[in-house]
Amino acid sequence: FQFKPKIPPRKPPKPVAPKS
What we know:
Blueprint (H helix, E strand, L loop, with lengths): L20
């Protein structure tokens, strides 16, 4: 089988504050 690199659990995207 294909070895897959350990990936972090899928999390909801964090709201990014616009840089002003």
